[in-house]
Design a protein that fits this description.
By secondary structure, the protein is an all-alpha fold. Helices cover about 85% and strands about 0% of the residues. It starts with a helix and ends with a helix.
Length: about 140
């Protein structure tokens, strides 16, 4: 077996793993959404489905990009294949970005404004510091 054939099999393995992630992730997302729907209602179930399956889609896209990279670089590194790979990576990057914004509800550069860390930091700056026991002993 040659190096090219081996790398082609590696790329096929990545594709199988990517497809399995998508199928199993959909099933898991549906189970999670049904459980959430029973406990918290329809709106929460729908949100759980969107968030969990969105994460699965992101992971599946990353694995499929890895398969394309292996196939293009190791199996058939022609200029046309590299151009096609660049287009595929560009499209999948846009899809990943769009999915991440859809899941989080904010663009990545605004995510820190809505995180718990910034809320705690803002709250800490809003209130005067409490006197420490060392300060009280000095008085």
């Amino acid at each position: 077996m040659t190096f090219t054939e081996t790398m082609d099999h590696v790329a096929q393995g990545f594709e199988v793993i990517g497809a399995a992630i998508l199928v199993l992730g959909l099933v898991w997302s549906l189970v999670l959404a049904c459980r959430t729907w029973r406990i918290a209602g329809g709106r929460s179930g729908y949100r759980a489905l969107r968030e969990s399956f969105g994460g699965v889609l992101l992971l599946g896209l990353e694995v499929l990009v890895a398969a394309d990279l292996v196939r293009t670089v190791a199996v058939a590194p022609t200029l046309q294949n590299v151009a096609v790979l660049g287009l595929i990576v560009l499209i999948r990057t846009f899809l990943s970005f769009s999915l991440q914004v859809e899941i989080d509800g904010v663009p990545p550069w605004r995510r820190s404004l809505t995180s718990g860390a910034s809320t705690v930091s803002h709250a800490a700056r809003s209130y005067p510091p409490a006197a420490s026991p060392v300060d009280e002993q000095a008085s």
